[in-house]
């Protein structure tokens, strides 16, 4: 399916695949957004509970800040795993040089991952990892950068809280006929998202910004990615994880397992309790760079 373009945050445009009616909550995954953000746009102050996010910066620079005092900067090729747990309020905004062009953009891929019920109220935490720390492997006609998990003999630096055994890897296929085989444990949910070029899986050819869920039968233990044609390299992200045997109730940025828990999350955020004690009145400094216009809805 083609990713659906929509407005998010303030002035940002995202192409969403996972989290749309055609690809709704393929456990443990909730949302997959490819986002391009211009100067004055971004994702200012907003909350989360009960889930994690993985942000992979494809080009440019993103900065983040939360109500606990955590802050940092991610450059091209860097990644961040954020576990919201019982509650986080934060901002994610692009960072540009003061003398840079107004047309500059920052591009990233963000994945939302459900937390197991037993870990939904854990303490919030972060893992920021630089591009140089990513796992890498190369072969004739292809290469892979591994952010989470292990594939093709390479392992990523991020240890996914509550999603042990997960895989997030960026494959590059250099020329027509180039191939990559990736092992995926039987029964795991596996998703491919094409960043550029075309990629063939079985009899299906996917173009840029198209995604597909792979069959998860007991006999399925991997996927063969092939570049069918074209001179420019193709890039495709492979994501895999073990499904969670639990209900998913998503109330905007809060992901829980019942309607009662969803109502409680909203109440806790509004009243500043149960993990949101520092939320009342907190406004991100970096979020103040957002200008009204474009998409006005928060990233939720």
From TrEMBL:
Annotated coiled-coil segments of the chain: none
Entry annotated with the keyword Iron: yes
Gene Ontology MF terms: metal ion binding
Keyword entries, A-Z: Iron, Metal-binding
Domain Pirin N-terminal stretches: 14-113
Cross-referenced CDD domains: cupin_pirin_C (cd02247), cupin_pirin_N (cd02909)
Family: Belongs to the pirin family.
Name the record gives this protein: Pirin N-terminal domain-containing protein
């Amino acid at each position: 399916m083609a990713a659906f373009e929509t407005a998010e945050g303030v002035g940002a445009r995202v192409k969403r695949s996972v989290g749309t009616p055609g690809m709704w909550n393929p456990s443990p995954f909730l949302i997959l957004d490819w986002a391009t953000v211009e100067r004055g746009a971004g994702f200012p102050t907003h909350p989360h509970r009960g889930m994690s996010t993985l942000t992979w910066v494809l080009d440019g620079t993103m900065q983040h800040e939360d109500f606990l005092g955590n802050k940092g900067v991610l450059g091209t090729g860097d990644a961040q795993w954020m576990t919201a747990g019982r509650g986080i309020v934060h901002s994610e905004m692009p960072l540009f040089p003061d003398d840079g062009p107004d047309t500059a953009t920052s591009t990233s891929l963000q994945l939302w991952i459900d937390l197991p019920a037993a870990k939904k109220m854990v303490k919030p935490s972060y893992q920021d990892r630089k591009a140089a720390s990513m796992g890498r492997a190369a072969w004739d006609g292809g290469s892979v950068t591994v952010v989470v998990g292990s594939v093709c003999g390479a392992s990523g630096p991020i240890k996914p809280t509550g999603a042990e055994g997960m895989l997030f890897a960026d494959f590059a296929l250099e020329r027509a006929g180039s191939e990559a085989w990736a092992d995926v444990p039987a029964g795991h949910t596996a998703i491919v998202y094409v960043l550029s070029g075309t990629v063939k899986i079985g009899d299906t050819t996917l173009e840029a910004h198209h995604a597909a869920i792979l069959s998860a039968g007991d006999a399925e233990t991997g996927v063969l990615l092939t570049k069918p044609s074209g001179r420019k390299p193709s890039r495709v992200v492979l994501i895999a994880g073990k499904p969670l045997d639990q209900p998913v109730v998503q109330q905007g940025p809060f992901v829980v397992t019942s309607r009662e828990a969803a109502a409680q999350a909203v109440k806790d955020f509004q009243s500043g309790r149960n993990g949101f004690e520092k939320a009342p009145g907190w406004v991100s400094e970096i979020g103040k760079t957002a200008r009204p216009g474009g998409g006005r809805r928060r990233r939720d």
